[in-house]
Structures are given as structure tokens and as C-alpha cells.
Amino acid sequence: MKIVCRCEDITEEDIIRAIEEYGCTTLAELKQILRLGMGHCQGRTCLPIAAKILARKTGKSMEEIMPSFRPPVVSIEVGVIAKKVKK
Amino acid sequence: MKERAEVVVIGGGINGSAIAYELAKRGKEVVVVERKWLAYGATGRCGAGIRQQWSTKENALLAKKSVEIFEKLEEELGHEIGLRQGGYLIAIHDEEDMKQAKKNVEMQRSIGLPVRIIGEDEIKEIAPILDPKGMEAIAATFCPTDGHANPFKTTYAYAMAAQKMGAEFYKFTEVQDIKVEDGKVKKVITDKGEIETKWVVNAAGAWSSKISKMVGLEIPNKPVRKEAMVTEPVKRTFDCMVISFKHGIYFSQQDEGQILGGIPSPEEKVGYYTQPTFSFLRHMAYTLGKYAPPLKHVRILRQWTGFYDVTPDALPILGETDIEGFIQCNGFSGHGFMIAPMTAKLLAQLICGEKLDMDIERLNMSRFEGEIVEEKSVVG
Lengths: 87, 380
Ligand SMILES: Cc1cc2nc3c(=O)[nH]c(=O)nc-3n(C[C@H](O)[C@H](O)[C@H](O)COP(=O)(O)OP(=O)(O)OC[C@H]3O[C@@H](n4cnc5c(N)ncnc54)[C@H](O)[C@@H]3O)c2cc1C
Ligand code: FES
Description:
The structure holds two protein chains of two kinds. Chain A is elongated and about 55 Å long. Chain A has four helices and three strands. The longest helix of chain A has 13 residues, at 46-58. Chain A is 43% helix and 8% strand. In chain A, 37% of the residues are buried. Chain A has helices at residues 12-22, 27-34, 46-58, 78-82; strands spanning 3-5, 10-11, 76-77. Chain A is mainly α. In chain A, strands 1-2 form a two-stranded antiparallel ribbon. By secondary structure, chain B is an alpha/beta fold. Chain B folds into two domains: 7-47 and 152-220 and 313-369, FAD/NAD(P)-binding domain; 88-144 and 222-310, D-Amino Acid Oxidase, subunit A, domain 2 (D-Amino Acid Oxidase, Chain A, domain 2), CATH 3.30.9. Chain B has nine helices and 19 strands. In chain B, the strands form four sheets. Chain B has an eight-stranded mixed sheet with strand order 5-6-4-14-15-16-13-17. In chain B, strands 8-2-1-12-19-18 form a six-stranded mixed sheet, sandwiched between helices. The chains are: A mainly alpha, B alpha/beta. The A-B interface holds A 22-23, 25-26, 28-29, 32-33, 35, 38, 40, 42, 70-72, 75-82, 84-85 and B 36-40, 44, 152, 156, 160, 171-172, 231-232, 256, 276, 281-283, 285-286, 288-289, 295-304. β3 of chain A pairs antiparallel with β17 of chain B. Bound molecules: flavin-adenine dinucleotide and FE2/S2 (inorganic) cluster. Flavin-adenine dinucleotide (FAD) binds next to α1, β13 and β17 of chain B.
């Protein structure tokens, strides 16, 4: 068993199963089905590895398998941002 | 790709997938054409809250009937959908709000919803994390059977069940034109080939007005950018969705523990602009901290945008049009997820010539020719 996404506890087998069962061809679909890359590190660790698995299984190039990007870049406390409101 | 199908559904969101299932279940040959992947549109970006507390009877009934379907859906489809019924708590801020709330509750109770008005003490009992002072709330309405389902799981559950019964889904396939002959739909033209058909269902979400134009029909829908955010997961602290029509905020705690929510952003625009804004995040964080002070210490993981497909009365456009065989299923504004199960069932009944479980004449696009009754209970 190889862990690919440490934050969300997802293995290589989970990814391969999702690709085969649901016919996923993109990282976006793997995110939706498995929560891959939705954890604390925002996929910085797991998405490149998952992209390689996808490329291998689907025959697509790494460039085609682009992740979407949702800010902020690093997680930040609600209260810290709330302080930025000018009253 | 098939060259011919009885029904072509455009859009692989919750609505397109659910309609495909309801049609396949009735033995119709149906294909779904999706430009990207399933749940790429609003469905994959939504709060997925399920609320029956509406000011118009149409929305309230569609939502109530949908909840009845949601409650049995895992069993019916054979897949998990992540349904959780923790209720919706809607803040009442002043006497005027209270007047509208009383009116809404009366109508909602008349159709059998277990809604009630609760005071500050009960707000704190239901969700101890809330601060009625910070919320500027004098009371709230609460419906315990409202809730949430996982939008990805629900969409895939419908799509997988539909495929099992013979429906075909064409991903990464874009509808580019629709051919009409003698006032009837004839053929759907995609970038991967053409499909001859008698029925076209326009479930293209925020792109529905573009699809309508292909058959020469104008609909008043506008794509409005909406933003949302999610925090890191924390220990389960509350079960209900919290919303306010005055502040426009909505937030709830998801199954995995994250807090997910949204609020209208100061830079809200009409059009297909997708860049998330810092001003949204600031406004959201500030208001969330007021509503639930302990959440100030929770970290925000990500923010994103999606589109509401907004109609002038915030009610969907459903049903037949002047073009024979062209069916509208769009204009869901901010609540197309929660009413999808019933919407899909009704449109499938319409296409199959069955008797409809509920009258949807009022939701036909022809209503825009007369006076419109606006839905008032909108957020986000
Ligand atoms: C931030 C946010 C929060 C929300 N919160 C809630 C909520 O709490 N509860 C709720 O009920 N609703 C909510 N909504 C609204 C809800 O998401 C939508 O009403 C619902 O998902 C619409 O589903 P749909 O299947 O009709 O459309 P969509 O999910 O938008 O699907 C339309 C699909 O059509 C495809 N398409 C478009 N053009 C073409 C073409 N030419 N060819 C082929 N395919 C095409 C798109 O790629 C897309 O996948 C929210 C929306 C947003 C943006
Ligand atoms: S390892 Fe996958 S989100 Fe962090």
C-alpha cells in the first residue's frame, strides 16, 4: 500500500480504482471523488504524484493534467483576515 | 458517440445527471453531453445546502419533494450521497424581518414543513458556537429536516446509476449548435460529432442562455459570479446551516469537519469572470467571526468562484418552449442543487408524457411576459 495523499489518507490503489471505476482522466475528477489534494497542504505533496499515476494510466502528458488553483497559498486564520476590515 | 438518441441532455451537473437517471429509469434512450467533466459547473462549486424554507410556494414545494427523494436516494441509486439533516437556522434581525418570517413560516407550515420561530436562547442551544449579538439577531427560523448532501457524490451517484440503465455520458464534448426544422429540434452538433434527436434538455447552468440562443430563444438568465471558502477541518461543533438574508452569509460544518461558506462579495460581477478576490475573503472572515467568534482561530484553506444562473425572480425556468422538443431546465439562481431530484423527476414525466406530480406551468419561461413574483429568501 502506497500513501499518495497524506492529508486526506488516500493510497495509490484508491487512485487507480477511481480511474478505473469512474473513468477519471483529470486531477479535478480525482479531487471530487477522493478529496485528493483538498487537505492541509492543498495538494502540494500529492498532486504531482497523482498526476504521474494519471499520466501512466491514461497515456496523457503531464502538461495536460493541470491542477486548478484555489487561494490562499497558505492557510490563514479567519481572525487575521477579519482584522483587515476597515470599520 | 451515438448518431441518434431519443433525448440529448446538455450539461453534466446535478440537474443533467439526475434527469438522465430519471429518463433512463423510464426506458428512454438518453445521452448527456458535457463540455468538461461531471460537476464542473456550479454543482462542483456549491454549498450543497438543502433548504425548504422559501418565500414562494413553488420553491418550497420543489425543495420539500426533493428532500423526500434525497432521504431515500442512497438506497435507490446504490451509491453514497452524504446526506446530513442538521437543519437550517435563518437569522431574523428586526421587526420587519420578523413580519416576513411569520408570513413565510405560515405558508411553509401549511405545506407540512416542521418550521418554527426560535428565540436567542434556542439559537444558542442549537448551535452554541453562535453569538446572537454578533449576528444582530433577535430570533431565527429553524427547520430540522433541512440539511446538506455531498454535491460530487450525489452527481456521480445519479450518473453511475443512469449509466447502469443504459444512459451514455460524453465528457469533454461541447455542444456548438442545435439544428431546428419546422419548429422542432432535429440535431445537436458537438465538436465530436452530431446526434439526431427529438428532445433536447438545456441543463447547461450559467451557459444556458447561450444554448437557448442556438435555437433562437432568448431567456433572461444572467451568470453572476459567486465566491465561497472552506477552512481546515475542526472538531464537530454544530450541525445546522446558518444563514442570513440581510447579511447574505451562509455557512455550515461539513462531514469532514471543515467550515464551508459564502457571502456576496463587494466586487460581485455579472459575466464569466472567475478570479477569486481578497475583498470576498475579508468580508467573509469578518462576518463569520461576528456570527461565530470561536471560528476566528480556524484557518482558511481555500477559496473559489462559481456562477449562479440568475433569473429576474430567482425561480428556475422549467419545461416546454416554442421550439418543440426543446426543454428548459435552468435559471436555478442560488439553489439548483437542493431542488434537482424533484425537478429531474418532473421533467422526465413531461418528456415521457406522464401525468406530472406537481404543476410547473408557473415556472415556464412564458411567465416573463406577465408580472413577476420575486423569491425573497435568497443568500450568497
Ligand atoms: C458558490 C455557490 C454556492 C451555492 N450554494 C448552493 C446551495 O447551498 N444549495 C443549492 O441548492 N444550490 C447552491 N448553489 C447553486 C447550485 O450550485 C446550482 O444551481 C446547481 O449546481 C446547478 O446545477 P446544474 O446541473 O443545473 O448546472 P451546472 O452544475 O452549472 O452544470 C452545467 C454544465 O453544463 C456544461 N456546459 C455548459 N455549456 C456547455 C456546452 N456548450 N456543451 C456541453 N456542456 C456545456 C458545463 O460545463 C457544466 O458542467 C450554489 C452555487 C454557487 C456558485
Ligand atoms: S498530501 Fe494531499 S492534500 Fe496534502
